[in-house]
Amino acid sequence: MDGEYALISLKPDAYRRGMKKMILKTCKKAGLRVKYHKKMWLTEEMMRTYQPVLNQMPEAWQRVFIFTYLAHPTDVYLLYGEKAIEKTSQIKKELRERYVVGNPQMTPFNLMHSASSYQDLVVNVKVLMPEKCDVVLGRRVSWFQRLFEGVIIKE
């Protein structure tokens, strides 16, 4: 089986609505395996990486968006499976169609984020999981180099 990586992060409203387990079960049912997980607090610097997305929102929404994300931890998952990016994009679309009230493009409350392309995946991994860049990019790194760089990859 040819596989690829995908990254998802659960948004604050997924927690508020108790949807974390359901989202992960949906990913598993689609044939995606969790390869790595971490809970983290986003920083304003990380949020500014998504400035093109923020620029599509009215300024008042930008402040709500940033405040909402900085006020809550988020779970970030690196998934692996056949057509993982395509599948996570489809899962995100279906969740938003089913559960999001209003315009899902104009609200920070839309359940999950996923990379929509390989290029988007690389950006997301560099921001949210820099310790996994070598795995996602397929670079072979010796255990000594990882130790030297302080980047021990647990598989």
Keywords:
155 residues, alpha+beta, Alpha-Beta Plaits, four-stranded antiparallel β-sheet, globular
| Tertiary shape | globular
Helices and strands, in order, run as EHHEHHHEHEHHH
Share of β-strand residues: 15-25%
Number of strand elements: 4
The multimeric state of the shown protein is single chain
Strand order of the largest sheet: 2-3-1-4
Instruction: Tell me the CATH topology.
Output: Alpha-Beta Plaits
Report the C-alpha radius of gyration, rounded: 16 Å
User: What do we call the CATH homologous superfamily?
Assistant: Nucleoside diphosphate kinase-like domain
**Class per helix and strand makeup:** alpha+beta
Number of domains: 1
End-to-end CA span: 18 Å
Q: Tell me about the largest β-sheet.
A: 4 strands, antiparallel
| Count of helical stretches | 9
Q: Point out poorly predicted stretches.
A: 148-155
- Range of helix content: 40-55%
In round numbers, the mean pLDDT is: 80
